[in-house]
UniProtKB/TrEMBL annotation, chains A, B:
It catalyses: a fatty acyl-[ACP] + phosphate = an acyl phosphate + holo-[ACP]. Pathway: Lipid metabolism; phospholipid metabolism. Catalyzes the reversible formation of acyl-phosphate (acyl-PO(4)) from acyl-[acyl-carrier-protein] (acyl-ACP). This enzyme utilizes acyl-ACP as fatty acyl donor, but not acyl-CoA. Keywords: Acyltransferase, Cytoplasm, Lipid biosynthesis, Lipid metabolism, Phospholipid biosynthesis, Phospholipid metabolism, Transferase. One of its GO terms (molecular function) is phosphate:acyl-[acyl carrier protein] acyltransferase activity. The keyword rRNA processing does not apply. GO terms for biological process: fatty acid biosynthetic process; phospholipid biosynthetic process. This is Phosphate acyltransferase. Signal peptide: none annotated. The gene is plsX. Belongs to the PlsX family.
Length: 342, 342
């Protein structure tokens, strides 16, 4: 597993301690290669107490900043930590890449270095939302801002494979994000995608609305990368604004402060449940390999959880399964009998 | 003011008591015409104790169901309560319409009966989000699912006029909803709209992201009706899922229940602040008239607050101001000096 040691808002201490925590979670199963500037990584590693096995450093002299354009990273930063991560993956030296750096650059480098998986038109970034009933995969959340109906249908297949293989959903229910439950509702592309998905072999639930994302039984929500990215950030902003408001109101008087003290354990359990830290990474699906992109503000726990999901993705060979899923879809489009089965 | 008495999930008792509560809030200033089936409205009115003045009933024999298609309502339900509301408005017998019924049908009937305001290409439904700093107008939230860049720019002008005239924002800051702060970020239409808005005389803040909607200083957030509607419903769903989780966790043990009792006043203040009830209606901007569309699940308080906003819109002649705003924008496009000023 290659971890971009340089790419997190919290700096090297976050990535290194995330790696150490993942090693504790998966003793003997995991090797982490910390990719970055040795002069930054080494001191942190000795400070935190590196184990004798399972962790190593691979030097990379450059760092991608949050403001770097993906195209310029690709052209000019050949020795950036995220580039070296994917070079290692391509060379077969690691099975997966985890990065909390510039997500646009990570996606671009990942797609270019690893290449698209067979049968895949457009890789997609999937995010895992904690739901009331079960986690929900929502994709695309930012890799493709202008999508065709056929791309959306492919996302449905990719998300379905991921929910089944990595999240353990038996026959994942796939919903299409729209603005009304009936098939005729939505914009032009979504209305066409509805027909594609309805005709497919997926377990298609039809349209779902914004309010269903957190509470319905669907395991996969399909949308274009613009809408998905807005949803992701809106949810983050809303919860943080709401928590701020709760705090302001509660701390205004003694009664509130006493109540808050009593409720501390309950809110801790809640935070644990809702926190994206438990699904710390967004898988980049449809490339020839396994890559997880973490939030820039990731905690060590979020990094460790992304590493755990990446291991599960490697074990289930999710990239191959995604290709098979899309091959099946192409077969359906041609009206041929399924050429592959599970 | 015409109120569609039949259009609320909670039935006639909700709309009638909303009207009575609005009358109490604005004594002497307000007359409400309850439009609907007299045999349903009258008993409710006497049960709740109708005041001697300020309220009357206008008979409408048909009711629009939530499942009715807007086009079929327009063609076949000429005596539906929502249709009669707009007929009254068009005839000048009322100054505004408030409805918590089928929102698609309300928009369609409102646009057809009232007509577009001068200079307006496409009316838009605007929703008012309670923000951390101040209320934010987000539009479009469902009237136009496929938008051009020029439509988005017009929404910016309409939202700016509304924020200034009705919400009292001095020089409303307008943001364009996208997936990155820089102007080059977003889908094709949004990138073009950025250029339109940047070249305009609006107080344009550039792109805003989903996470800024609740916390930034912008008073107006521009997006297409598909994205806006998804955002609206996602926010609703997220808060309701979150509150359910809070309840579950808090009520699990005695300590939690005691804490909850202490925090009751704080959470009541909070609910009061966040609740969409305080901005109970979404204005339909760009028609020749004033119309507010309320959530189907509206409470009497939400109805009353929508009536209050509608009064403010009438007093400030927001429909005329919207036309003037768009005339100004057209002037800018032609490179002419401003032909109208405040």
């Amino acid at each position: 597993m290659a971890l971009d040691a340089m790419g997190a808002d919290g700096g090297v201490s976050v990535t290194v301690s995330g790696a150490l925590s993942a090693l504790k979670d998966h003793p003997g199963d995991l090797e982490v290669v910390l990719v970055g500037k040795p002069e930054a990584v080494e001191p942190e590693l000795s400070r935190l107490g590196a184990p004798e096995e399972g962790i190593s450093i691979k030097s990379a002299s450059e760092v991608v900043r949050m403001t770097d354009a993906p195209s310029s990273v690709l052209r000019h930063k050949r020795d950036a930590s995220i580039r070296v991560c994917f070079d290692l993956h391509r060379a077969g030296e690691v099975d997966a890449v985890v990065s909390a750096g510039n997500s646009g650059a990570t996606m671009a480098v990942g797609m270019v270095v690893m290449g698209r998986a067979p049968e895949v038109d457009r890789p997609a970034l999937a995010s895992i939302f904690p739901g009331l009933l079960s986690p929900t995969v929502i994709l695309d959340v930012g890799a493709n801002v202008d999508c065709t109906a056929s791309m959306l249908a492919q996302f449905g297949f990719m998300g379905s494979v991921y929910a089944r293989e990595v999240l353990g959903a038996k026959s994942p229910l796939v919903g299409l994000l729209s603005i009304g439950e009936e098939g005729g509702k939505g914009n032009l592309v979504v209305r066409q995608a509805y027909e594609h998905l309805k005709a497919s072999s997926l377990n298609f639930a039809g349209n779902v609305e914004g309010r269903d994302v957190f509470s319905s039984e669907v395991s996969v929500v399909v949308c274009d990368g613009f809408v998905g990215n807005v949803c992701l950030k809106l949810s983050e902003g809303l919860l943080s604004a709401y928590n701020q408001l709760v705090k302001n109101e509660v701390m205004r008087d003694l009664r509130g402060r006493a109540g808050a003290m009593l409720l501390k354990p309950a809110f801790k359990r809640l935070a644990n449940r809702m926190d994206y830290e438990n699904f710390g990474g967004a898988p980049l699906l449809g490339i020839n390999g396994v890559a997880y992109i973490c939030h820039g503000a990731s905690s060590p726990k979020a990094i460790a959880s992304a590493i755990g999901l990446a291991m599960e993705s490697v074990n289930t060979q999710v990239d191959k399964r995604v290709s098979e899923g899309l091959a099946q879809y192409r077969g359906e489009l041609l009206g041929e009998p399924e050429t592959k089965s599970e």
